[in-house]
Amino acid sequence: MNDGRDPLAGLRPSRPPSTLRTRVLGAAGEASRRQQQGIFELLVADRTLRWLAAAILVLATLNAAAGTGAILDRRSAGPSVIPTISGDEVVPQLDVRTTAAEQAPALASILEGRRG
Amino acid sequence: MVAVGLLSIRDIAFAATGNECPGDAELVAVLARAAEGDGDALGAMYDALADEIFAVALWRTGSRADAADVVQDVFVRVASRPSSLAGIRHPRRYLLAMAHAGAVDRQRSRRPEVDVDDAPFLEAASLDAGRTIDAERATRALANLPGAQRVTIYLHHFRDLSFREIGRITGVPTFTAASRYRLGIARLRARLEGTR
């Protein structure tokens, strides 16, 4: 105490009941064992976890039975439209190996046809 | 220590050096064993700290039943997450703070119409009938104090913790802890003198 008139002199805090040690260490040991349990032991011990695992299993089975590929096909499938170009409509490509003047004779018919 | 209500030389020295609680070195070793999953370490930890944890919870809640539950909660939490103990440098402070927080939670969640049990906070240190009567009178006086003041009195008077350390355990500034002690001990003394 800090001064001469100690109102708590000769007294001490009351202690926990003697039975508490067994109870506390028992509960702590149980918690420790649960912490060290694997997933299968937890599933066996816990009914809620068992229900969750069963629900997940059923959903996965149904999904597999329905076929995930079909869903993907429905989303992406459809009439394919591939552009085709006939030989007459081929656009002539410039020959980059020659100058414009050198290409002029080859292009003359095309250019004149457009003008006409 | 110097005087009630003032920070003592010990408190100031503690604040300056940041020294840990007494006995922490041994407890660090025990906690390290518990963190590695050593089941015997929990028993050693109980023997070292259960009295203090129980008293913190009892003096905070005023209920022996709640205090026993708090002790169990603390040890179950420790056993559930042993790896979390590995880096703790001040295990006594850590566990007492956990106990204090648990006691506050229990006190808040208790329905107001439920009476707390008639908890004896103190007992006579010797088999002296006079001291036994003193313990009963002091218990009645302590029962009229707020739990926050009561637990501060316990930690400072009986565990010799500095106000800085008490502040850390109870989650209040150092001067708040000192103020709670000063007010609490003054009210306790007034009540005891009034009942003589």
Could you give a short description of this structure?
The complex is a heterodimer of chains A (116) and B (196). Chain A is mainly alpha-helical and 116 residues long. Chain A has helices at residues 20-36, 39-45, 47-66, 68-76, 100-115; one strand at 11-13.
Structure notes:
Chain A has about 120 residues and is mostly helical. Chain A is built from five helices and one strand, in the order βααααα. In chain A, helix 2 crosses helix 3. Chain A is elongated, with a radius of gyration of 44 Å. Chain B is globular, with a radius of gyration of 17 Å. Chain B has nine helices and one strand, in the order αααααβαααα. Residues about 1-20 of chain B have low confidence and may be disordered. The interface of A and B includes residues 20 and 23 of A.
Radius of gyration of chain A, Cα only, in angstroms?
Answer: 44 Å
Amount of beta strand of chain A:
under 5%
Based on helices, strands and strand pairing, what is the structural class of chain A? mainly alpha
Rg of Cα set of chain B? 17 Å
What composes the largest sheet of chain A?
none
* Structural classification of chain B: mainly alpha
* Mean pLDDT across every amino acid position of chain A: 76
Q: Note poorly predicted spans of chain B.
A: 1-20
Listing every helix as H and every strand as E from the N terminus to the C terminus, the arrangement of chain B reads HHHHHEHHHH
Low-confidence stretches of chain A: none
List SSEs of chain A in N-to-C order.
Answer: EHHHHH
What is the multimeric organization of the chains shown?
Answer: heterodimer
Secondary structure: number of strands of chain B:
1
Question: What helical percentage do the residues of chain B reach?
Answer: 55-70%
